[in-house]
Amino acid sequence: MGSTAARDGVERWSRDMPPAHFFFKIRSFSLLSETGVDKIESGVFEACDIKWRLCVVYPKGKLRAKGEDEEHISLYLQIVDNKFPAGWEVHAKFSLFVYDHVNDKYLTIQDAGGKTRRFHCMKTEYGFDKLFPLSTFNDPSNGYLVNDTCAFGAEILSVSSATKHECYSLVKAPIKNGTYTWTIKSFLTLKKRETYTRSNEFIVEGSKWKLLLYPSGDSRANGQYLSLFLELLGVEGLIAHGRKIYAKFILRICNHLVILKHKEIEVAKFFGDEAGSWGHPKFMKLSELESSSNGFLVKDSLIVEVEFKLISKYS
Question: 208 and which of 128, 180, 202, 233 could share a cystine (Cβ 3.0–4.6 Å)?
Answer without folding.
Answer: 233
